[in-house]
């Protein structure tokens, strides 16, 4: 499995079986380093509907003639916008074209603004993606919650992408505890430094992970990790 970080919470995941992208906030993020039209994937996976995660999902799905996987209300929103979709919900799993997706709980919110109105887009979630015989847990936007222990007990997680920005999600202290509960061998910090309110030191967080016996990778946009 090869993971390439494109800033904020966007991860491109590649294996011989398939290529997928998670939370492709690219054109709206000047630090992503890539344009959505340059993304080639077999599926788009979304953790929730906030604009910094939904991002360019519909455009990428239409360009690649591939489905968006999302919790039911968000999937319907994407379908109405012209994308192929796979409707899912928390706790459900689905095997598709060489990979498996399962949605886990996340403690956050999920909506998008259109004009003067906010549209509710279902429950936020985390994603367990199994591809190429390995499993990535992308926590999405979330607070620390006790069932992360259960997620770690029931799944052999090779790498976890955990938010560390604080204010809107877990901060570094809670993310450090989450990494231990998840029993992840490797951790990629995400959802930080995109804007001033969530500035954090990813390298320092990874140094703290190392003290716990966990390998941390503070990837910059465009950098990759192979596991």
TrEMBL record:
Gene3D superfamilies: Ribonuclease Z/Hydroxyacylglutathione hydrolase-like (3.60.15.10). Keywords: Hydrolase. It catalyses: 3',5'-cyclic UMP + H2O = UMP + H(+); 3',5'-cyclic CMP + H2O = CMP + H(+). SUPFAM superfamilies: Metallo-hydrolase/oxidoreductase. It comes from the Bacteria. Residues 7-191 form the Metallo-beta-lactamase domain. Belongs to the UPF0173 family. Counteracts the endogenous Pycsar antiviral defense system. Phosphodiesterase that enables metal-dependent hydrolysis of host cyclic nucleotide Pycsar defense signals such as cCMP and cUMP. HAMAP family: UPF0173 (MF_00457). PANTHER family: UPF0173 METAL-DEPENDENT HYDROLASE MJ1163, UPF0173 METAL-DEPENDENT HYDROLASE MJ1163-RELATED. This is UPF0173 metal-dependent hydrolase J2Z22_002701. It comes from Paenibacillus forsythiae. The lineage of its organism: Bacteria, Bacillati, Bacillota, Bacilli, Bacillales.
């Amino acid at each position: 499995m090869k993971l390439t970080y494109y800033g904020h919470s966007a991860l491109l995941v590649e294996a011989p079986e398939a290529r997928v992208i998670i939370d492709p906030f690219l054109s709206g993020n000047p630090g992503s380093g890539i344009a959505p039209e340059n993304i080639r994937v077999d599926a788009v996976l979304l953790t929730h509907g906030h604009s910094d995660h939904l991002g360019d999902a519909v455009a990428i799905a239409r360009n690649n003639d591939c489905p968006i996987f999302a919790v039911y209300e968000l999937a319907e929103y994407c379908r109405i916008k012209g994308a192929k979709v796979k409707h899912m919900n928390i706790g459900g799993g689905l095997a598709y074209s060489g990979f498996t997706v399962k949605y886990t709980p996340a403690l956050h919110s999920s909506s998008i603004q259109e004009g003067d109105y906010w549209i509710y887009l279902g429950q936020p979630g985390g994603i367990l993606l199994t591809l190429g015989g390995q499993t990535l847990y992308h926590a999405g936007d979330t607070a620390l919650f006790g069932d992360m222990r259960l997620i770690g007990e029931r799944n052999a997680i090779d790498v976890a992408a955990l938010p560390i920005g604080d204010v809107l999600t877990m901060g570094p202290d809670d993310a450090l505890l989450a990494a231990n509960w998840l029993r992840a061998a490797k951790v990629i910090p995400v959802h930080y430094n995109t804007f001033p309110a969530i500035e954090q030191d990813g390298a320092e967080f990874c140094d703290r992970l190392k003290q716990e016996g966990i390998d941390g990778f503070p990837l910059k946009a465009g950098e990759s990790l192979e596991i």
